[in-house]
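User: I'm preparing a small set of examples for a lab meeting where we compare how different chains pack in three dimensions. I only have the primary sequence for this one, and I'd like the structure in token form so I can line it up with the others. Please keep the answer compact; I'll paste it straight into my notes.
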Amino acid sequence: MLAQQDITEKHSMQYAAKSAACLVLASLALSDMRSRHLPTRAVLLVACLYGVDAEGVSLFSLAAHVATAMIAFLAFALLFRFGWMGGGDVKLAAAVFLWTGPAYAWPVFFIVSCCGLFLGIAALAIHSYRHRKTADSPQSTQHVVQHGVPYGVALAVGGIAAIWLPVLNRL
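Assistant: Understood. Below is the structure token output for the 171-residue chain.
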């Protein structure tokens, strides 16, 4: 009976960590939309909550998740180097891909990419509508380039998917 109670408590703690991570990701998405800023402490909290969720996993599994996060960090850092991504986005990408591990990295990357594409098109459309110019006008696209796309929103959506895809896969 005690072992069953320990398992139930472990699952409760994992679901609490997953839910808390989703709330933090949602707040990061809002922050990125409002100010184009992703607070480092909130990004770090998302990564730390993975540690709570990963309690009891094998060392090999943990190493695979950390390796996936490192690869994502390096890939997004390269995008940052070329000016295509903000520094907060790089950190958030590493935290999101820490949750994915190798098993869900490609599906989550696809989700993040599609959301990012949608955000980019929406940013161009909104700016064009506000200034009554066509989307292919150099002044219109220059505004979006200067202010950027809130890619943290796409990463947050991908992060929520990364958190819940393993659970949905077990159903």
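A couple of notes for your slides: Residues 2-170 form one domain. The chain has a mean pLDDT of 89.

User: Perfect, thanks.
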